[in-house]
Amino acid sequence: MRKYLAFDIGGTNLKYGIVTEEAELIYKKIIKIQDTYKELVDYICKIYDETDDIEEVIGISCPESYNKEKKIIEGSSALSYIIGEDLLGDIKKKVNAEVIIENDGNCSLLGEIWNGKAKGKKNVALFVVGTAIGGAICIDGKIIKGVNNSAGELGYMLLRNDVKNMNFNSLGGLSSVGGIVEKTREVHKGKITNGIELFNEFDKNKQLKKAVEEYITYLSLACINIQYIIDPEVIIISGAISSNDKYIDILKEKVDEILKIKTFHKIKPTIVKAILGNDSNLLGIVYKYKQEIEYKT
């Protein structure tokens, strides 16, 4: 059975593991992300050299996108030191292996397509809800990237806009876990710092509950918008918060409330929570390799 080494680069942690050709994650480790770009590259190469019985491939899920023409990571990221660097090229200089890189949102969706909630489906949208909001779009079985590699960056969607005064709000700023925690700060007085704490206090504080539901409603609006833009079979909600049934229930309830008001909107989005959790990126980058390299040979 073929085995593949995969890495998931985050702003805080580096995750890596071994994925089989049957979409099984048989080993996983999470460590604090390295302090410098050089340390990150050296560590990835070290793990590859020390790992036996794997294919000569390194799969990397990373924030933002790798521009193949410019040979750099582009965009903005919580891990600022990777921006402008040729991560693919710098790793290939040190090891004799095929290196494949993909945006983390796209990897998350690819993982769900391979062996998750999108398995067998051709048209899917995914929202990754965390400190910010990311996403990915699949149409006719292909991940859509666009001319600037920014297709599927759903957190940039503008909602709750005051055009007259030129005041605009992004979906990420309104409905991400980080956004909700920040927007409700006046209610919780700075005592809440993450999603777990937020929902632990949810039913104890009516004012907080009302505020949280308001900001989740913006994601419900975004789901309806996406439904009419690409008409997906399912919309997947990923990220750690997706495991919270209360969050998903509110999201769906607000969709129902909106559609009762907007009666011309007849199509109700099918919203599901991701089942692979934070492992989807590791599976997704391996699936990308199998699609692009192995399946063509």
TrEMBL record:
<protein>
    <recommendedName>
        <fullName>Sugar kinase</fullName>
    </recommendedName>
</protein>
<comment type="similarity">
    <text>Belongs to the ROK (NagC/XylR) family.</text>
</comment>
<dbReference type="Pfam" id="PF00480">
    <property type="entry name" value="ROK"/>
</dbReference>
<dbReference type="InterPro" id="IPR043129">
    <property type="entry name" value="ATPase_NBD"/>
</dbReference>
<dbReference type="InterPro" id="IPR000600">
    <property type="entry name" value="ROK"/>
</dbReference>
